[in-house]
Amino acid sequence: MIIQFKGEVFYWRGPAPYVFVAAPEDASRQIKAISASVTYGWGVIPVRARVGAAEWKTSLFPKNGAYLVPIRKSVQQSENISVGDSVTIQIEI
Question: Which CATH architecture describes the domain 2-92?
């Protein structure tokens, strides 16, 4: 399953040095629908993510009914991403 959405980059005191983008309601519903068959525990879902030219493997974190996409420091730097930016993210589950 491939899902693409746009969201605002925010800081959450989760695992550093990551920033995050929350999947919107519709995307989160689609992810939740298949979550039981793809999670490897605690509701965490492995994905391949892409922003601009950067692609990386990561895991979605469930939080408050949505899923958070962590953006690692190397991607933040290569794609010039800062807190408050709006980015288009593609995830492949």
Answer: Beta Barrel (2.40)
